[in-house]
Amino acid sequence: MGKRRDMRGRLYGVGVGPGDPELMTMKAARVIREADVIAVPGRKKEETTAYRIAVQAVPEIRQKDCLEIEWPMTKDRKVLEEGYARAAGRVWEYLAAGQTVAFLTLGDPTVYSTYLYLHRLVIAQGGEAEIVSGVPSFCAAAARLNMGLVERNEPLHIIPASYQIEEALRLSGTKVLMKAGSRIKAVKEQLVQSGEHAVMVENCGMPDERCFYSAREIPEDAGYYSLMIVKDKCSEGTSKL
């Protein structure tokens, strides 16, 4: 395959969108198609959500070399930094050989993406890295629920729900709760007790997508890719599809 000169030796963090391969951008598809190497955040590419999305839009990536990078699943900063350093070292092997690496990441790389740590390390070491935007999960989830996120002068707050959210829920405007993970039961209880109007999409755009239209409906065993939208009580209600 012919290679573009301006792409050699460069790392791309490619957002593949929230789940529906039709939501991948034309630029994301082009960069993936032209890259020498595909990198994925996982032990095996076929088990990686971002790869499963991308391969539907760009089937030819099956023939490309794939760099599988398993991130440490911990909040220990030292362990995380060691893991990021190892990942950067592996990517550098390809960049130093003049190859382009497209790192696939779910949603948009600028929103709570592990890729950002790799991005900064490569740049700090004198390499070239570029971010390719993807459709953020909270925009896709709002569209799926047939609702707006914010209107007029309403603020929008993006909140990592794996941490404490009590103070965040007092903020005015729309609150997007992401990455609840194992705390989803506690988050649900807090939403129910506070009487907040919350909706949720699990696995947005994927074959096993599920939508929930109140805090009480949210299952306590919902998966990792679950996103909640909390509107002010005075906001217009959500329309069911």
Written account of the structure:
This protein has 241 residues and is of the alpha/beta class. The chain has two domains: 5-132, Tetrapyrrole methylase, N-terminal domain (Cobalt-precorrin-4 Transmethylase, domain 1), CATH 3.40.1010.10; 137-231, Methyltransferase, Cobalt-precorrin-4 Transmethylase, Domain 2, CATH 3.30.950. It contains six helices and ten strands. The chain has helices spanning 26-34, 49-57, 77-96, 115-124, 137-144, 184-194, and strands at 10-15, 37-40, 65-68, 101-105, 128-132, 156-160, 174-178, 197-202, 210-212, 226-231. The strands form two sheets. The chain has a five-stranded parallel β-sheet, with helices on both faces. Strand 2 (37-40), helix 2 and strand 3 (65-68) form a beta-alpha-beta unit. Helix 3 crosses helix 4. The radius of gyration is 19 Å and the shape is globular. The N and C termini lie far apart (45 Å).
Described by the principal axes of the CA atoms, the overall outline is globular
CATH architecture of the largest domain: 3-Layer(aba) Sandwich
Share of β-strand residues: 15-25%
How would you classify the quaternary structure?
A: single chain
Q: Kindly state the number of beta strands.
A: 10
Just give the CATH class of the largest domain: Alpha Beta
| Biggest sheet details | 5 strands, parallel
- Measure the end-to-end span: 45 Å
Output the radius of gyration. 19 Å
Mean pLDDT: 89
What is the CATH topology assignment of the largest domain?
Cobalt-precorrin-4 Transmethylase, domain 1
Structurally, the number of domains stands at 2
Major beta sheet, strand line-up:
3-2-4-1-5
Q: What is the N-to-C succession of helices and strands?
A: EHEHEHEHEHEEHEEE
Low-confidence stretches: 1-7, 236-241
Helical amount among residues, as a percent range? 25-40%
What is the count of helical runs? 6
Structural class: alpha/beta
User: Mind telling me the CATH superfamily name of the largest domain?
Assistant: Tetrapyrrole methylase, N-terminal domain
